[in-house]
């Protein structure tokens, strides 16, 4: 069964850090760009960051640049999102998704696989 599983979410105070993981099972991530997306209550899902299959290219939403870092370990079939200096507005369900491409992620509707999400709550 092909699936992505996110983990690492939780409750953190403003200014704190979390590291999210996205682990694949049933397929190898070697040929997939991986994106992190998030959906806050009452808002549409938005792209946060993406990393190419090789890890050589990344991009970030303006709202997280300088605070979030995406990385991948293909040997562990896992992609990470290190989130620092968290703000209340980062509160959302975070999803990872995979797209079979040599480049960066395309639009959300083009992603091939999605995880079920992990909740991040930033609150004092």
Write up this protein.
With 124 residues, the chain is mainly beta. The mean pLDDT is 96. It has strands at residues 3-7, 10-12, 18-25, 32-39, 46-51, 58-60, 68-73, 78-83, 92-100, 113-114, 118-122. The strands form two sheets. Strands 2, 4, 5, 6, 9, 10 and 11 form a seven-stranded mixed β-sheet that branches. The relative contact order is 0.32. It is built from no helices and eleven strands. A hairpin with a 6-residue loop joins strand 5 (46-51) and strand 6 (58-60).
Oligomeric state of the chains in view: single chain
What's the total count of β strands? Answer: 11
What value does the average pLDDT take?
96
Please mark out the parts with pLDDT under 50 across 5 or more consecutive residues, or reply none.
none
Topology order in helix (H) and strand (E) letters: EEEEEEEEEEE
Secondary-structure-derived class: mainly beta
End-to-end distance, in Å? 39 Å
Principal-axis shape: globular
Please bin the fraction of helical residues: under 10%
Q: Proportion of β residues?
A: over 45%
**Main beta sheet strand tally, sense and closure:** 7 strands, mixed
Based on CA atoms alone, the radius of gyration comes out at: 13 Å
Strand and helix map with partners:
Blueprint: E1 3-7, E2 10-12, E3 18-25, E4 32-39, E5 46-51, E6 58-60, E7 68-73, E8 78-83, E9 92-100, E10 113-114, E11 118-122
List its traits.
124 residues; 4-stranded antiparallel beta sheet; single chain; mainly beta; 11 strands; globular
